[in-house]
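Narrative of activities, Objective 1.

The group set out to show that a structural description can be obtained from nothing but a protein's sequence at a throughput compatible with the screening campaign. Below is one input-output pair from the validation batch, recorded exactly as produced.
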Amino acid sequence: MRQTTHTSTSTSTTNQKIIQLIQGLHQLHTTPMKAAHYQKLATYLPYPSLEEIEQRFGSWTKLLEQAGIVKPIDLSNRDRLTLNRSKSSPSRKRWTVEESIAFYVETCGSRVTIRSYSELRTAHPQMMSANTIIRHYGTWKQALAHFQLSSNGFYSDEDCLNALRQAYEKIGPAITSQDYVRFARKQQLPSLTLLIERFTSWREALRILEESR
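Output recorded for this entry:
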């Protein structure tokens, strides 16, 4: 029962934020915005997708009604059809969060960063955007925790040590923690934070690396 109440409250809050967004957008418009226009905006900006809006409110015009942009009595059936018409793209139907995450894990593994997820989505636009996933769960970290995943993945101590070894061999004995950060980002290796969590400090990680050489 508590879970249901929490979900209901969360849904209500999200719906209110969408209503406020639409009200803000219409301060720049003298006539009601069409669904196709909003759909184009949502492609380039971190807005809820048109599909999500239709799922939450029933239709684009119903959202406009709740936002006070239009009144039901003022809309003819033709007006509704015109406002609700979106750009059709049946081959690019948006996947659910679960489908998107599952596809990522199958394709790239259990380490899920916003950057790597977004790069995969560029080739597969039917995946739900990272911004939409964050809106669903509050933060990226909470979203991954829901699916028992991590942006650090499931690296062993040996994985972390091997990553440090790669950086050391590439950069040399004068390697600094910032050198490692830049190298790890480019090579998609365990983060500096994870290395420190595993070996207590950057200096200790280098000491352990020296002993293993």
